[in-house]
Design a protein that fits this description.
Number of helices: 3
Helix content: 25-40%
Number of strands: 2
Structural class: alpha+beta
Radius of gyration: 19 Å
Order of helices and strands: HHHEE
Length: 102
């Protein structure tokens, strides 16, 4: 099973952006880079604040914020069902997935 679903979906989404931008054919070849910049800037503007609400925009590779952030609270797992054949428990957190927005 996938342990970090947010990371998995974020990686899949970013890979999809790169694949889709590369699959478009432009008359002006400079538009390929501009297309990715456009999609990525909108991703940062509209989705990143919801996926990572504590994300700091004040840091960068060139001027990093080196303070240690507060630790997240430990997730509370709840057993939702047991597999009848293997008797293996399936757990879930109370944290919902983000609703998709278009």
């Amino acid at each position: 099973g996938q342990e970090d679903l947010t990371g998995y979906f974020l990686e899949a989404f970013l890979k999809y952006i790169v694949i889709q931008v590369r699959s478009l054919e432009w008359r002006n070849k400079e538009n390929q880079e501009n297309g990715f910049s456009f999609l990525f800037s909108h991703f940062k503007k509209h989705y990143l604040p919801y996926i990572f609400p504590a994300f700091s925009k004040e840091t960068s590779l060139y001027n990093p914020v080196l303070e240690i952030p507060q630790t997240r609270p430990k997730l509370h797992y709840v057993m939702i069902k047991k597999d009848a054949e293997t008797n293996e428990a399936v757990y879930c957190t109370k944290e919902p997935f983000l609703n998709a927005r278009a």
